[in-house]
Amino acid sequence: MPAPALTLPRFGQGMKPIYRLGWLGLGAWFRCYFRWRAYHAERVPLQGPAIIAANHASYLDPPLIGSSVRRELHYLARESLFRNPVFGAILRAVNCVPVDREGGGAAGLKAILERLLAGAAIVLFPEGTRTHDGRFLPARAGIGLAVIKSACPVIPARVFGSWEAYGRPHRFPRPRRIVVKFGPPLFFAQLRAQAKTCPKPRLKQIYQEVADEIMAAIQQLEPCEDVTALP
Questions:
Q1: Which secondary structure element, helix H or strand E, spans residue 124, and what is its range?
Q2: Level-2 CATH architecture, domain 17-220
Q3: Band of the pLDDT at 56, cuts 50, 70, 90?
Q4: DSSP assignment of 130-185, as one string?
Q5: Residue 111: helix, strand or coil by DSSP?
Q6: What is the pTM of this model?
């Protein structure tokens, strides 16, 4: 069996300067401090709309995913983080979208769809919040709604080791190995077609089915190296 594809981005062509600066700086820190590796990042299209759906164990997860691919990504962030004018300007410059705490309201959905219609790739977390104990949380239906309302592929991604490095119990990041792995894209064409004509109760079921299928695809991703055996 051939070795799994290891992909570490190098150049960041086409990125605006402030995003590229963060991409390069964080990538260097992740490599040195966490011995970070990314696998199968080529599964994320370099152009066009896409949703990257990942598990959420740490504040590190969004920049880890962003540092793993060779295109700009867009992110959701709590609107309270934008209250500081300077920090808010930086967040907007690196493609963060302000949403309410849950990110599942009308404003959050509108922001997601606007970015996707403009051809952006956006990072979403089906669990809706960081895990409290390192285990997966149930998927929320909100991501299913966003997927059905859009027409783009969903690329599942799993971050290994970020809970051990900087999960909720830790006040500061610890130097633990972190690996990001991307899975084959999901398309949901049949469920999107069904959603156009089905009654409202069935539509809610479809949103949850999509969310559950995405979460299952994330959980099925296996590490390409023994992360837990490394200090």
A1: strand 121-124
A2: 3-Layer(aba) Sandwich (3.40)
A3: very high
A4: --SSSSPPPPPHHHHHHHHHS-S-EEEEEEESHHHHH-TT-SS------EEEE---
A5: helix
A6: 0.91
